[in-house]
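My current task is to audit a protein record that another person submitted. What it holds is a sequence and that sequence's fold in token form. Thanks in advance; the entry in question is below.
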Amino acid sequence: MDTAKRKHLRTIGHKLKPVVMIAGRGVTEGVDAELERALEDHELIKIKLAIAEPGDRKLVAEHICNEHKAELVQSIGKIILIFRAARKPNPKLSNLLR
């Protein structure tokens, strides 16, 4: 992803609220299903990682991106912003088309 696109996505993501929260149990099957649905519907989503260690947060963020074929746009503290283009974007749900 080039710098201009990353900056554009960060601008859109600034006003978003986290749609998924990942805590001590990590990425469970239910969390994976919700992440998949959210990425397909919204394309650009914020995730809150309620994990104390920064190294663990980084590992979880990498796992999510690899598992869901998404790109990490931004990571600030316990909040990450990820992007994956939808196969058929819905203009009513997509954070990029609204």
User: Anything to note?
Assistant: Helices lie at 3-13, 29-42, 54-68. The chain has a mean pLDDT of 95. The chain has one domain: 3-83.
